[in-house]
Design goal:
Elements lengths: L37 H22 L8 H29 L7 H35 L8 H31 L1
Helix pairs in contact: 1-2, 1-4, 2-3, 3-4
Length: 178
């Protein structure tokens, strides 16, 4: 049998002169708000500020330890402050050294940590909101309590949660697509 066979000759392609210049479609582009981007740092700073304000306002009242939901809120925003500060420092470092934070393990850690702190912060804010509504609307004893401070601290906890959700979703998306 003398059938002809196709011959494959490898094509020599020179690598790009600039290693940063990659072909289109090869690397996923960093979305604003992902870890290691200025948007991600902005979200972390917003989380830290909202949690710190909530903590400061709630701890400025003398009667917050008497209600377990308010103690839970204080514990949750302390955890949120520590988590947001740590990740803000990581984001600052990544921006300064121009390092990408798309490592699978790091993104998994960020997504799990954001998910846990988001759930805890949301639960604490909802519990505090329920107690605040009970004190203000149902019992009508706001004159004896610090209702304005409780409402402010609860609102700041919700704002912290609202700035945490995009970070969690972007980290989860990045983890799922890597």
């Amino acid at each position: 049998m003398f059938a002809s066979r196709p011959v494959v000759h490898p094509l020599e392609v020179a690598p790009p002169a600039d290693p940063v210049e990659q072909p289109v479609g090869v690397l996923m582009k960093d979305l604003p708000g992902m870890p290691g981007t200025p948007g991600g740092l902005g979200l972390r700073v917003a989380q830290l500020l909202f949690a710190a304000i909530s903590l400061a306002v709630m701890s400025s009242t003398s009667d917050f330890p008497s209600v377990s939901a308010f103690r839970y809120l204080v514990a949750a925003v302390i955890l949120q402050c520590v988590w947001s500060l740590a990740l803000a420092i990581v984001d600052i470092y990544a921006l300064l050294v121009k390092r990408c934070l798309r490592n699978r393990r790091a993104v998994c850690l960020f997504a799990v940590g954001d998910g846990i702190t988001a759930a805890i912060t949301f639960a604490a804010a909802c519990a505090s909101a329920g107690i605040t509504v009970l004190i203000d609307n149902d019992l009508s004893i706001c004159s004896e309590n610090h209702c304005a401070a409780f409402e402010t601290a609860t609102a700041m906890a919700f704002m912290c949660w609202f700035s945490l959700v995009p970070c969690f979703l972007l980290n989860f998306y990045s983890f799922a697509s890597s």
